[in-house]
Amino acid sequence: xxxxxxxxxxxxxxxxxxxxxxLYVTGPGMVLTGDSVRYIMGAENMVLGNGYxxxxxxxxxxxxxxxxxxxxxSISLLMFLGIDKLVAPRIxxxxxxxxxxxxxxxxxxxFSKKQLPAVLGAVAVLxxxxxxxxxxxxxxxxxxxxxxxxxxxxxxxYQRNHTWGRLLLLGLVLGILxxxxxxxxxxxxxxxxxxLVFSNEEWKKRLVKVVVLGxxxxxxxxxxxQRNARLEGTVTxxxxxxxxxxxxxxxxxxxxVVSWLIPQILQIEWRPRFSHLIIVLAVLTLGYAxxxxxxxxTQAFEPGHIWSYKLLPIFSLLFMYAYLATVFLSTSFLDAxxxxxxxxxxxxxxxxxxxxxxxxxxxxxxxxPWRYAGIAGFVLWVFxxxxxxxxxxxxxxxIRDVSAYDSWAEGAVEAGEFLRDLDPSTVILTNEIDLVYxxxxxxxLIPIKQxxxxxxxxxxxxxxxxxxxxxxxxxxxxxxxxxxxxREFKYATFEELTEGLVLVHVSNTAEIFxxxxxxxxxxxxxE
Length: 527
What we know:
By secondary structure, this protein is mostly helical. It has helices spanning 3-25, 34-47, 70-80, 88-112, 115-126, 129-135, 141-161, 164-176, 187-198, 203-232, 247-261, 276-299, 312-333, 341-344, 346-364, 370-401, 404-411, 413-421, 433-438, 461-473, 494-498, and strands at residues 53-55, 61-63, 428-430, 444-445, 477-481, 502-506, 510-514. The longest helix has 32 residues, at 370-401. Residues 300-306 have low confidence and may be disordered.
């Protein structure tokens, strides 16, 4: 049996282990966030024939423009097969987790022709608590990572013989990528640059193929943006405005990366003091990339030379920097929240694993003293990841118990029964429209003081508050979930909302209010 087949079998076993792990972790259900519910809601409306849309508080479909459509479209395909809307994301992200584990190992194997670093790379994705955690979320990051890894496989295969079929297939994947996450547009220029610089075709052919790839890769996104602008007058439900990134949020990003180098299980309170390690890591990676460029720039033009997978470290490095630049540009001009920084950094972790292992393998194959440096780095990396693996094993039950909105829905059974028993025409206003959707009703959001995307005060708050009171006077109910809401500054205050209203239902997770002059009070409060 060839070495390739040995590697395939080993990586397939690890992918199967990944499937078992993620199915165990998501046994109680996928972790659902507000974004998750929007994806699921969009998928359900696709199945119902309403297009990619959500339902407002009256049950009318409204186009979704703030979230890309590929992940909900994938969910809807499974729903057409009769799979439940909350089960479909679990199936998808289980597949993506298996695929990500396999592809990371396979890429490292094709680069190094060695099974040990390939297995270690796959295990680094399989056994890191952040990858396990965020593959258990009903979100689009797993699919984005999978397609980005697949795009390099297709890029490397194209570079081997420069066939149009492989180029068009690569363009198809690159075109789908931004429809999973808009920020993945960063992959397209990286792929075009590598073809332009390292192809062994003449310059005219290279330019033509880069143009074709660029058009194919960007066209689906442009068409989607045109659809959004036509329906809602905005391409992504964001306003272009400059809002500087607060230092404390940059510190969060720094501390997350430091936690990869100094594992949490060590409980070293002074981990942030190791921030200079990021600078060292950046210098080393850039220096190694320059070395790789100079080494393979000449080899690339040798006829028939199989070199394409050797570009993996350069692709990984360019991807990491292009992706981070896109995230920070988006944060500075479109979405200032940056609240999910751990999730945003997950693709960087995956590609950093690939880059470091490729670098260590390359250094070990060189003469002294680089060989010793590679061995030392490899041993240190294995030592550090050993602690990560132990932390993941210790955290499995905790990860399994985290279930965000679905656990809230389970705890809000009484409130859900109350809301479902209301007349279908009764309007519901709430601070948790996604939770109310999971409980089986549509709703309107209560007045918002602060815009989540700009982190600035909204000018229309008084108008929102006036419309809110008008709905309450027409027989609507107000459902407030979670006692912590009373401290939430971005919404109208509790007193502003409940003045003149009476409590018609209370449970451990919810308080529901109504106007006693218009709401039917018969039976309320009776045993």
